[in-house]
Specification:
This protein has nine helices and eleven strands. It is α/β, with parallel strands linked by helices. The chain has two domains: 56 residues; 205 residues, Leucine Aminopeptidase, subunit E, domain 1. Pfam families: ThsA_Macro.
């Protein structure tokens, strides 16, 4: 990876050297040395600046099939336009530390905007949404809702897009297989295409945090690459100035190799 960074950083100096080398044949020897030293000094400075720039990126904008996809730090609740919040396959709304953790984005969202009668209203609107595909009913479930929805199904709640993202086992643990993750994301992008009205959509890193991966292990870097790949093959297109924004905590963003993600444009 560092070889690729160095190669890109050296592109401009090498181009200049190639151009100047054809002119050196017509220049007196004393001046050749001076010119070469100047070019060498410029090249070293340019490469150093480029390397520092590449290795200290704090955000990045990718052009994915004509759509702008940015990755930056921030608070998902402070973003403009549509914000994505991941729910489980039941669209549960019970924040009790068992079904939904109060510290999760799902829990924070419900506690921030809903309580009492208003929560009942949200549950009713989800239940009555004819665009949500029901895939089964779990009559034996003791806590939470019983109706299960297709992974990737998305409910629009004002400025928020609530997505059925994880399956729940009998112990109310969120789990996903790799095949389920990719199918879910492809379905999710189709749903966004139906709902986003050409506006910017901000989302957290889906699949990170409390989600347990049943048959694979993936770092946050790899989860982002899967997210970008599914977006790339989807039908959705964002027109400038609107875009997709992946919003990460600053501490998590520091662990991501943003330069490597640039290769997803290719």
């Amino acid at each position: 990876m560092h070889k690729k960074i160095l190669s890109k950083a050296a592109t401009v100096p090498l181009a200049i050297l190639s151009f100047v080398s054809t002119l050196l044949a017509f220049i007196d020897p004393p001046f050749k040395t001076i010119i070469l030293l100047v070019i060498l000094a410029y090249s070293l400075i340019h490469i150093c600046i480029s390397l520092i720039k590449y290795l200290t990126l704090k955000d990045i904008s990718l052009n994915i099939e004509g759509s702008i996809f940015t990755i930056e730090s921030g608070d998902i609740f402070e973003q403009d336009h549509y914000k994505v919040i991941a729910f489980n396959e039941y669209f549960d709304t019970l924040v009790d530390g068992d079904i939904i953790s109060p510290s999760s984005l799902n829990g924070v969202y419900i506690n921030k905007f809903y309580s009492g009668q208003s929560l009942s209203g949200l549950n009713k609107r989800i239940e009555n949404d004819i665009n949500l595909k029901v895939v089964g009913e779990n009559e034996n479930r003791k806590k939470g809702k019983k109706i299960k929805y297709e992974l990737g199904s998305t409910f629009k709640d004002g400025e928020y897009l609530l997505v059925a993202f994880t399956k729940f086992n009998k112990g109310n643990e969120a789990r996903l297989k790799l095949s389920e993750l990719t199918i879910c994301l492809i379905k999710f992008w189709d749903e966004v295409n139906r709902l986003y009205e050409g506006k910017t959509v901000s989302l957290p890193l889906l699949g990170s945090g409390l989600t347990r991966h049943s048959d694979f292990q993936a770092s946050d870097q790899e989860l982002i690459e899967i997210l970008l790949w599914t977006f790339k093959i989807s039908k959705i297109k964002f027109k400038h100035p609107n875009r997709v924004k992946l919003i990460l905590p600053e501490s998590k963003l520091k662990e991501i190799n943003l330069y490597k993600l640039k290769e997803m444009e290719e």
